[in-house]
Amino acid sequence: MIASALLACGVVSAQASASFRPAWWCPGAHLQTIWAAVLRPTPRVPLTRARWELPDGDFLDVDELAAEAGAPCVIVLHGLEGSSRSRQVLGLLREAHRRGWRGVAVNFRGCSGEPNRLRRSYHGGETGDLAWVLARVMAEHPSSPIVCVGFSLGGNVLLKYLGEQGEALPTQVRAAVAISAPVDLALSAHALTQGFSRVYGRRLVASLKRKTREKLVRYPDLVDAGALQAVQTLPEFDDLVTGPVHGFKHAADYWARSSSAAFLPRIRRPTLLVNAKDDPFLPAVALPVRAVSENSFLRAEFPTSGGHLGFLEGRWPWAPIAWAEVRAAEFLADHVEGAPRTAARAAEGAN
């Protein structure tokens, strides 16, 4: 019934909702998720690392993709405990490179391989750094149309920022795509404590705890070391660390104020949301179907399968086609090139 309603109002076309075809060698949500994150060949892109000093004394490390003056520029945000070298980020930048676009892949604070300087780090509702990056890119490339892509937690950050800005968003920013964004952080955090998804949750928490222990050397009063040692789940980590360190009362306050779902109605740029209904990081009930149907600037493509940041197609596992990244580039091209320049799907999967 929901799908019929969306088709009726033109939000999701039958072609769009059926366009993802899972690879025969990669069936199911978990195999899609794991293969894309661990086994997928790493895309090769000519990038240059730069350190951008922030006004508050901290820094952001970014990977830049060069292009001709005036070329479209895509700003890319990674997911929780990812980096600018995550396979999905590199895959998107490869699509940008093929089109002759400039690229800026941002590492959130503390995610480039070196601890950031301040007590704070990054979280799913922090949009100030994105605003600063956009301002810098616009100043350096005033003739370039800008588009944005956010993966997973980076997608939540991007959507929240777009909603916060609303009509005030600079006109140089033309369009955006959020892939596997956990638009409801509370439901997402708890999903990672259930069933096989606990494997993902434990891996994320281990990485977050390691970084927090490193920061305790410089800021010994950051959190209680004993309490940190006892943390086992993402909700527990958010309650002890993410929330209090970043000015929230607790995890629930952080989730409520940082989830992008409440900001979707105020987005005023063409924005594509790509989420699989079987995403192990976000239950299907959390997909923002109503928000999309009520905001003409939003487009949703919610395939039945695809996992979390998976969406792998292709005949052979050594040459996968990353459908979501190709689709994102096509969507963005509509808004910066006039019409998408789409190569054959099989060719898009070549490494």
Give the total of domains. 2
Instruction: Report the mean per-residue pLDDT as an integer.
Output: 92
Question: Helix and strand succession?
Answer: HHHEEEHEHEHEHHHHHEHEEEHH
CATH class of the largest domain: Alpha Beta
Q: Low-confidence spans: pLDDT under 50, at least 5 residues?
A: 1-18, 339-351
Number of helices: 14
CATH superfamily of the largest domain: Alpha/Beta hydrolase fold, catalytic domain
Largest sheet, spatial ordering of strands: 1-2-4-3-5-6-7-8
Which structural class best describes the helix and strand composition?
alpha/beta
Main sheet specs: 8 strands, mixed
- Residue share in helix: 25-40%
Rounded to the nearest angstrom, the distance between the terminal CA atoms is 40 Å
Rg from alpha-carbon coordinates: 19 Å
Reported by name, the CATH topology of the largest domain is Rossmann fold
Oligomeric status: single chain
In brief, what are we looking at here?
With 351 residues, the chain is an alpha/beta fold. Helices cover 40% and strands 14% of the residues.
Description:
The protein has helices at 2-9, 14-17, 29-39, 87-98, 128-140, 153-165, 185-191, 197-218, 225-230, 234-245, 251-258, 289-294, 323-336, 345-348; strands at residues 48-53, 59-65, 73-77, 102-106, 146-151, 173-179, 271-274, 298-301, 312-313, 321-322. It is an alpha/beta fold and 351 residues long. The chain has 2 domains: 2-183 and 261-348, Alpha/Beta hydrolase fold, catalytic domain (Rossmann fold); 185-258, no CATH class. Strands 1-2-4-3-5-6-7-8 form an 8-stranded mixed beta sheet, with helices on both faces. A two-stranded antiparallel sheet has the order 9-10. Strand 1 (48-53) and strand 2 form a beta hairpin. Helix 4 (87-98) crosses helix 13 and helix 10 crosses helix 11. Mean pLDDT is 92; it is low at 1-18 and 339-351.
